[in-house]
UniProtKB/TrEMBL annotation:
This is GntR family transcriptional regulator. PROSITE patterns: HTH_GNTR. It comes from the Bacteria. Residues 11-78 form the HTH gntR-type domain. CDD domains: WHTH_GntR. Keywords: DNA-binding, Transcription, Transcription regulation.
Amino acid sequence: MGTTQLESVPEPKYWHLRTVLSEALDSEFTVGEILPNERDLAARFGVARATLRQALEQLELEGRLQRRRGVGTTVAPPRVGVAVGTEQHAWPGASDDVWQPADCAQAVPPASVADALESGRDEPVHTVRRSRVTHGQPVAAELLYIPQSSVPDLSAIDAPSGAARARAVLRELQRLELEGQESAVELGSARADDAKELDRLPGAPVLVVTTRYLAEGRTAALAVATYRADTCRLTFGDSGGVEIHQDPERRAS
């Protein structure tokens, strides 16, 4: 990586540095290679470490870099393609569902979830944790909130906890007639539990996809899926489905 000093430019200095670093990643580094430490990079480019961190954070947000525990900052591989939405509505746990159930417990949900479900804020709901792996790497973690009113016959099922309980809840949910679903996407920061599951650092940029499943004129379930922002690229088609595609402009150096 060169030692070119940054000249006075009308754009923010960190953004200009981000462009210089991005060009260096394309020409001088390979996927998985560890970058020099912040002190050396800041010295080479003649910038403050705070400016360097802003540029590195922006490149991480764009999926060019990854920060990994015990490793450091490495050059990220190209984004992988995973579908988030489809043209046809389907309950979680349907035959073509790519998510793997991991656990299920009854717990009081966050207030915003309780409000969306129109349940009491102190009323426990079934909370199903699921995970998603693509090309051998974890790309998303999901919490699926299901009020007891959506699965009234669940008490007769002998599956107290774990993945078996999660599958039982999903089977019962599918007894309802799905009337539709609505999804919203926003940028967020990885919570500690999601970061651990996704092999990221807490606070790393993530894409949060919230999906409301509608039945009997109400929200019968609410899913909050956390995707790695460095791994996933979301596009929206005319069908309203949401997909994550491999970036055709990205190539390994």
